[in-house]
């Protein structure tokens, strides 16, 4: 890296792939924090951007540096910044909120009408440096390892979803065991869930869910999911259903196994509109249905940190690969293959 420039992976133009570039180091405004990225992770959103699917084509405006799961060291701060200083170890809430809209002024910062998502709507963290507002910076406790600090964003999704209602002593089904689903299994168990079923079609993901404490593993193509859960719960069903996949089949099965009066927490995003029998599945069942978006800012972050520091939540089994930045394209292909959990890329790792 020469003076005034940095390494970055960029979506330089519409179409598949990312390009390794030398980019200008981003400037710092009076309330901004510039972070020297030390590790980042690849998530499903990044894969959509790499592959340039329908969603990416409609949302992304190249040139863009993707990446929103990261950690790093504060390199410099704006003149009005008071929360952090150079040398602090940090990560960031990647939903950049305005603070002025109707949602923000009611404390719903994660639902900001004018939200900008890091690495989607503004330049992201697949780079030597990233700049975010002071209000979005989160200081990382020194006892939290680098690879875990890099995945606070998706872990926060799991914490928000799992803890969106009562947990202790209750039974749950988690549909979709990607990294966030597996994290959610661990959060539920650490918060006192009595029984958790994990449902997916990928054997590797089910193995990771088991390592996170799942009591029952169900393969959607091999097992009678609904019957198995109803049998295991004496026909009553589960008290909570977490839908993390966006699958129409998972949503259908999830309502079928939900106990009367249970809660449904929806984080997975369907690829197209879905149909549901509202009378049968929601009204007569007395179900509470929640849409989960991002993380409560910053309530979720304090809960997440407390669970990690307590030792009750250990997400390391889900982080199956820790690679170097030079392995970026290998990491993308590995993530695409479904043969990995969470992949973290660490600066200077060979």
From TrEMBL:
Which cofactor(s) are needed, names only? Zn(2+)
Molecular function GO labels: L-threonine 3-dehydrogenase activity; zinc ion binding
Which residues fall in a coiled-coil region?
A: none
Record's Pfam families? ADH_N, ADH_zinc_N
Recorded hits in SMART domains, A to Z, give:
PKS_ER
Q: What is its EC number?
A: 1.1.1.103
Which UniProt keyword terms apply here? Metal-binding, Oxidoreductase, Zinc
**Would you say which domain of life the source belongs to?**
Bacteria
Q: Which InterPro entries match?
A: ADH-like_C (IPR013149), ADH-like_N (IPR013154), ADH_Zn_CS (IPR002328), ER (IPR020843), GroES-like_sf (IPR011032), NAD(P)-bd_dom_sf (IPR036291), Zn_alcohol_dh (IPR050129)
Q: Where is the Enoyl reductase (ER) domain?
A: 15-345
- Top-level class of the enzyme under EC nomenclature: oxidoreductase
NCBIfam families in the cross-refs: PRK05396.1
The entry sums up its family as follows: Belongs to the zinc-containing alcohol dehydrogenase family.
Protein name, UniProt field: L-threonine 3-dehydrogenase
């Amino acid at each position: 890296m020469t003076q005034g420039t940095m390494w970055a992976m960029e979506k330089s133009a519409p179409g598949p792939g990312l390009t390794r570039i030398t980019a200008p180091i981003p400037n710092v405004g009076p309330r901004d924090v510039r972070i020297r990225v030390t590790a980042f992770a690849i998530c499903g959103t990044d894969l959509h951007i790499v592959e340039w699917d329908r969603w990416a084509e409609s949302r992304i405006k190249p040139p863009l540096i993707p990446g929103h799961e990261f950690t790093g060291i504060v390199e410099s701060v704006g003149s009005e910044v008071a929360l952090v200083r150079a040398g602090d170890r940090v990560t960031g809430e990647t939903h950049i909120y305005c603070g002025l809209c109707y949602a923000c002024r009611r404390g719903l910062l994660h639902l900001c009408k004018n939200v900008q998502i890091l690495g989607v709507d503004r330049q992201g963290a697949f780079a030597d440096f990233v700049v975010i507002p002071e209000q979005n910076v989160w200081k990382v406790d020194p006892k939290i390892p680098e690879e875990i600090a890099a995945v606070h964003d998706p872990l926060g999704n799991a914490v928000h979803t799992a803890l969106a209602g009562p947990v202790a002593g209750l039974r749950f089904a988690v549909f979709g065991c990607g990294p966030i689903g597996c994290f959610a299994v661990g959060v539920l168990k650490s918060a006192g869930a009595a029984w958790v079923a994990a449902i997916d079609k990928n054997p590797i993901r089910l193995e990771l869910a088991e390592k996170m404490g799942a009591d029952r593993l169900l393969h959607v193509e091999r097992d009678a999911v609904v019957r198995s859960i109803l049998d295991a719960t004496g026909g009553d069903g589960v008290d909570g259903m977490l839908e993390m996949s966006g699958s129409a089949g998972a949503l259908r099965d999830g309502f079928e196994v939900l106990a009367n009066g249970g809660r449904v927490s929806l984080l997975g995003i369907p690829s197209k509109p879905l149909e549901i029998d509202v009378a049968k599945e929601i009204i007569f069942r007395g179900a509470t249905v929640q849409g989960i978006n991002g993380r409560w800012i910053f309530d979720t972050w304090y809960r997440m940190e407390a669970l990690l520091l307590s030792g009750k939540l250990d997400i390391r089994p889900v982080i199956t690969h820790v690679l170097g930045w030079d392995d970026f394209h290998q990491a993308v292909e590995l993530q695409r293959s479904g043969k990995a959990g969470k992949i973290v890329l660490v600066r200077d790792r060979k």
